[in-house]
Fold this sequence. Notes:
Elements: H1 8-39, E1 44-51, E2 58-62, E3 65-69, E4 72-80, H2 90-94, H3 107-136, E5 138-140, E6 150-152, H4 154-158, E7 166-170, H5 181-187, E8 192-197, E9 200-205, H6 210-214, E10 223-225, E11 232-235, H7 240-243, E12 251-255, E13 258-259, H8 263-272, E14 277-284, E15 287-294, E16 303-305, E17 315-317, H9 324-347, H10 353-356, H11 360-365, H12 373-391, H13 399-412, H14 418-448
Parallel strand pairs: 1-3
Antiparallel strand pairs: 1-4, 2-3, 5-17, 6-10, 7-8, 8-9, 11-16, 12-13, 12-14, 14-15
Organism: Danxiaibacter flavus
Protein name: Zinc metalloprotease
EC number: 3.4.24.-
Amino acid sequence: xxxxxxxxxxxxxKALQFILSFSILVTLHELGHFVTAKWxxxxxEKFYLFFNPWFxxxxxxxxxxxxxxxxxxxxxxxxxxxxxxxxxDKEQMKLPPQPYEFRSKPAWQRLIIMVGGVxxxxxxxxxxxxxxLWSWGEEYIPTNQMTYGIAAxxxxxxxxxxDGDKILSVDGKYVEKFKAIPFNVILDxxxxxxxxxNGEHVNINIPDKFAGTLxxxxxxxxxxxxxxxxxxxxxxxxxxxxxxxxxxGDKIIKLNENKVEFFNDFKRQIAANKGKxxxxxxxxxADTLNTSLTVPQAGAIGLFNTDPSKLxxxxxxxxxxxxxxxxxxxxxxxxxxxxxxxxxxIFSGKVKASESVGxxxxxxxxxxxxxxxxxxxxxxxxxxxxxxxxxxxxxxxxDGGHALFCIIExxxxxxxxxxxxxxxxxxxxxxxxxxxxxxLGLDFWRLFK
Length: 449
């Protein structure tokens, strides 16, 4: 029998953020189709957030359009008269074309209608990034300001990195943002890292399959900022550290007679002693004190170090309203490039699809377990751009598939038959449903694993 310990309050907060984020994305995506269809005189029969097989949670007809909310949260749709879509309304397609139908419009108008949603998602992602930069600015640790070097975990050590190494470049190119280094290693399929080790320049060769290992590893954090353990900043009231008598301001100097200089080393030693009793020597003012405790199986004892921002130089960039737009555009391009390169890694076989593909469960888990507006809007912008990219792929049943057929018609002057479009739509839907089932299966396998 398998028992899963689930924090339902955390799950609920993540679910609410997911639903709100995708409601925004889907509604605006479909609005892109709706507005362009109306612009060219097409009749829009339905406008739905989420799918509504058998019944709807809410619906209301205004004019010629029925607006509603479905109960299956996998997307949304607009039903445009005379268009072969997921509704598979074959009866309507048997009737003679009407002037207000999609199929009666010129190919260039149908193309604009089909890419309307993609354009809206691209513009939305760009706009959110711009407004975030205007509101919150940007903070990061410059790679050349890593005073104490890196904390190299077990994966980093397998390729030759060591605690205290200062990374100079990736494949000979300087990376300004320290946290961007793992992404550069993955997305650019980096072959080497150049580091400063105690004043000596050392070249670290990266194995061929390292990107595939890293992409599924601990949120990519194989290297971290090395921080001195100056003093305890806070102690959780219900923790074993509190029960052992540790207090804010105490400075731990030894763990089982091993000197404690850096907080990363301390956390590593704590994790290595799960379920075991350890002794701690610490300073409180001018006094040297000792205590002992048993490390919980979680591998943490409930205390925190001084805020890293007080020990490491963090660069802050503030943007004016007008400066935020080019900065937001650059971030959108970086996001598109990053996602495209991730797909290339999967199709090249360097990253296993089983380790990288996920469904709604994986997406929902990306949201914070506490409501965090900055994280919420950052993920919404990211998903908006990814949604645009995925929808423009030339797959039947996606916007890109319909757009491709319009382009072919514009080039050849020959329009695909309605029967061909029906078969193409069915094939595309089978493919997409198969991919969704595969991704959902992977998520359940990871959950129970």
